[in-house]
Amino acid sequence: MNPFVLLGVSVVFQVLGDTCMKLSNGFQKKIPIIGLVLGYVVSFYALSACLYAIPLGVAYAIWSSAAVVLTAIVGRIVWGELFNVKKSIGIVLIVLGVVALRLGVA
Fold first, then answer.
1. Of the N and C termini of the chain, which has fewer Cβ atoms inside 10 Å?
2. Which parts of 54-84 fold into alpha helices (H)?
């Protein structure tokens, strides 16, 4: 399987785990914990599986930054968390930093 597809799968399951963590309400609600564990297990497995072809620093940068951006978007859509100018600039800087890392490897 394409290592970047595995990395994308890893990001999606990371966001699932993060979302279920919020839904668990500090581990008060037990059902979302299943999604949290499943999300993190699949995420870390897929991340480790893509490392045969993607350098660790680049893979981790893409994985963490894409998860941050996607989690912020989910927070906005699902919980109505606000995006202000500072938050938007921060997200753009994260993406630009990952692009710079990726270009440095190519």
1. C
2. 56-79
